[in-house]
Amino acid sequence: MKVLLAGGAGYIGSHTAVQLLRAGHEVVIVDDFSNSSPEAIRRVEELGGKKVVSYEADVKDKEKVRQIFRENDIDCVIHFAGLKAVGESVRLPLKYYRNNIDTTLTLLECMEEAGCTRFVFSSSATVYGEENDPPYVETMKRGSCSNPYGWTKVMMEEILEDAAKANPKLTVILLRYFNPIGAHESGRIGEDPQGIPNNLMPYIAQVAVGRRDHLTVFGGDYPTPDGTCLRDYIHVMDLADGHVKAVEYAENHRGVEIFNLGTGTPYSVLDIIKAFESATGVKVKYEIGPRRAGDLPKFWADSAKAQKVLGWKTKRSLEDMCRDTWKWQKNNPMGYGK
Ligand code: NAD
Ligand code: WQD
Prior knowledge:
17% strand; binds nicotinamide-adenine-dinucleotide
């Protein structure tokens, strides 16, 4: 299939692009590089062993997106092109609503014009909100989010469900990611956050490589076994494999399907620090600080549906996640920048 990856130069998109190429699919990428680098696409081609057609464009630019559909016979779209910094979304909600929702609408409208009927969406465990208890199952109702970023995901899921209801030819796959970490095992591509990392693993990696002095663990008094929050960390390459399965599933199915992409195993912040130290032999300096506003004490996935319906199963361990993160960080201390 020919798959358009909106936001395909980013962290999850670039790893997915490699796995799609290796599975024999063709890849077209559109990205404005607002949170990524063209160098990622060059390395995707190197790892995937094939060329990628790429466009530098804003996915809100309808004329440009139309042109991409005109120039390429796209079978399926994967929409990664979102802004994702939770704290920034609280400060700049309109930027988040405009970007995340407008990109989705633009893609849907251009797909309709071009007769493209398969849409895979980067959703998030955040849509389960505060009301649901883990493990999260796809049949649970969407909950309330503590920030505009999360609400954009809830709203886009609703928009996509409505679009599929109105157009019986449309296939929509909502992939709810848990906490993606790790990097391609080659260390050539990985997560390259701009500025101070918001997420745990890139922060740990930057402390380990000497870019940051220490990690602050956000809260040590949660109702969990060691007092720190529990999350479902998933290797980004397992997540990428989940996209390949979803794209192939979309070829023969209609309507909306939701899949959790997580391992089903929760780890605490302190577990992650210990696992990183033991996988890499590098000490991670940390101190316990206050809780971060909006953090839930614990959540993880019930991943049975993706296993059963997609035939997808995670293969990589926490040790793999830590080792591959470190390989990427050590070989590219300044990310794609230097
Ligand atoms: P990322 O920032 O690395 O990738 C997103 C890519 O989209 C970037 O390359 C960015 O330049 C591009 N982009 C953003 N807005 C654009 C626009 N208007 N036009 C063109 N390109 C645009 O993020 P990621 O971690 O790869 O996440 C991909 C998707 O998965 C996002 O929608 C994110 O919300 C979602 N998600 C991520 C996580 C996570 O922890 N990383 C978890 C759940 C869901
Ligand atoms: C993990 C754990 C922190 C940084 C976020 C989004 C979610 C999804 C994935 C997109 C938490 C702790 C972190 C640090 C810390 N993204 N932590 N010190 O918050 O589970 O999920 O990314 O959809 O929507 O909310 O991920 O990596 O930020 O945090 O102690 O410097 O690490 O408190 O317990 P989170 P995270």
